[in-house]
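ok posting inputs for the LGQLAAA5 job
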Amino acid sequence: MSRTRIKICGLTRPQDVRAAVEHGADAVGFVFYPPSPRAVGIEQAAELVALLPPFVTSVGLFVNASGEEVNAVLDRVPLQLLQFHGDETDAQCARHGRPWIKAARMRPGVDLVEFSSLHPRASGVLVDAFVDGYGGGGKTFDWSLIPAGFERPLVLSGGLDADNVVEAVRRVRPWAVDVSSGVESAKGIKDAAKIAAFIAGVRNADG
Ligand SMILES: O=C(O)c1ccccc1N[C@@H]1O[C@H](COP(=O)(O)O)[C@@H](O)[C@H]1O
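and the output
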């Protein structure tokens, strides 16, 4: 079994990027959604992405942004993967010439297989708890809503932290995990010790 990939999302400060990289994150995320307390500006993001060494993936998170808004970010920030967290269609996600993942907002009644069929070109499907504000809510959901044997690369998120990620990885066996609130000391302020503990938990679960 391959090791679970780890994305640390919602980075806003250079020291948080360095902490994520030093502790072994595979990907880091930048939120381009102004209502979020973790939102970054274009120049701020360009400076943060410039800190990344090779083989750490830069991810840009968008919620119902227009094509022009996404392109304005891409003109200046070298993002390698896009993460769409709103109501974007497959065609809207596809118009930027970059690979992407699509978030499903999980709650009882959501059929992940049907959701997946609506997003055939996504590189993977991210599952997050349904919260007001589209995400980053620090809330878990019922992992049994994920169908056994789900065949797309699955990114598990929603309320993960160092305390629950071991059980989450052992139960769901996702391709990757994504965390924001669970490695923060305050909204948008990452905590290096929590990042270290989270990543250690994933590696522990990987065995
Ligand atoms: O981080 C945010 O502020 C955010 C805003 C809007 C949509 C998604 C957002 N973050 C993503 O939400 C999930 C769950 O985050 P958490 O760990 O529960 O805080 C994760 O994929 C973040 O990348």
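notes: The helical segments are 14-23, 42-49, 67-76, 90-93, 112-117, 165-172, 192-206. The pocket of LGQLAAA5 is lined by residues 9-10, 29, 31, 33, 36, 38, 61, 63, 85, 126, 128, 134-138, 157-160, 178-182 (CB under 6 Å).
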